[in-house]
Q: What sequence folds into this?
């Protein structure tokens, strides 16, 4: 099977570039220019908020690559610390502006992608190994016995250095390769397609968003321990971490650290410890000396005592 963009066998069309290495080469995550100006966009990738995704914008220090459907255009911009900027392409200028860490690009909101999740081929393989992603939207399935065509969730999963893509009524087997901290390419025969990490548990391929399947994260005390061991989670929002002094409360992030089957929970100005016990494949019990809490696992987050915590990147 040769898998191409939008179900064709044509692959990705590169326009206005002239050198494919410009797209697939490593992107430097520069935080500050030589002149000391804080770079807001260099190394960042932004994805339009629609599903299916209509647009992906990727910045280097002074270039911008705009993917629409199966076409990629390259242009230039000046990352000078301003919030309202213009990207220049051969066909004209595109205005864009900061939107609280995301951007408004060509009047459409684009959210910032995952950032640097891996910095080498080795780390990419470790990140993806045994992971399965399923399309959020139902896509075209295979032809049924009565001649009708249904809809299904397409799936992509990874085992060692191989990628498997279940589309319609076929499964393609291919390989994948590192591009940069938020992008990798999947290859099926002569067809190469970029995949963007939207965040830890979502990827975008051919404009469709796929979510990581966490339904079988753990199925026993042993696999729960392996899932949690060495991980840390911090509260999504700032919360009170100390007494109120002169009417002002100290704020910070609450935290849960796991080691083997034990945990330490730091909240307000309190630290507590206990053990974890398997409950089901999406939850577990935090066991204290005097009580128990049921903890829900939601992707890379946990809901702990009604507060959402996100996994801390290593």
A:
């Amino acid at each position: 099977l040769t898998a191409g963009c939008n179900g064709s066998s044509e692959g990705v069309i590169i326009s206005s570039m002239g050198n494919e290495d410009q797209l697939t080469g490593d992107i430097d995550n520069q935080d500050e220019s030589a002149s000391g100006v804080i770079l807001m966009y260099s190394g960042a990738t932004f994805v339009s908020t629609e599903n299916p995704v209509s647009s992906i914008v990727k910045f280097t220090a002074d270039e911008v690559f705009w993917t629409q459907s199966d076409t990629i255009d390259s242009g230039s911009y000046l990352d000078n610390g301003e919030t309202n900027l213009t990207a220049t392409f051969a066909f004209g200028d595109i205005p864009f502006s900061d939107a609280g860490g995301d951007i408004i690009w060509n009047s459409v909101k684009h959210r910032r992608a995952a950032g640097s999740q891996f910095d080498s081929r080795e780390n990419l393989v470790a990140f993806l190994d045994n992971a399965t992603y399923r399309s959020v939207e139902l896509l075209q399935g295979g032809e049924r016995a009565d001649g009708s065509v249904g809809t299904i969730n397409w799936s992509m999963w990874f085992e060692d250095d191989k990628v498997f893509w279940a589309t319609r009524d076929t499964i393609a087997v291919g390989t994948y390769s590192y591009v940069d901290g938020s992008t990798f390419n999947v290859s099926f025969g002569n067809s190469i397609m970029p995949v963007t990490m939207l965040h830890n548990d979502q990827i975008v391929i051919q404009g469709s968003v796929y979510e990581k399947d966490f339904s079988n994260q753990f199925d026993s005390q042993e696999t729960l321990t392996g899932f949690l061991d060495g991980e840390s989670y911090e509260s999504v929002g700032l919360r009170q971490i100390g007494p109120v002094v002169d009417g002002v409360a100290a704020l910070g992030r609450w935290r849960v650290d796991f080691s083997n089957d034990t945990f330490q929970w730091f909240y307000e100005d309190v630290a507590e410890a206990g053990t974890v016990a398997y409950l089901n494949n999406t939850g577990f019990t935090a066991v204290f000396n005097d009580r128990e809490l049921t903890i829900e696992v939601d992707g890379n987050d946990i809901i702990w005592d009604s507060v959402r915590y996100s996994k801390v990147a290593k």
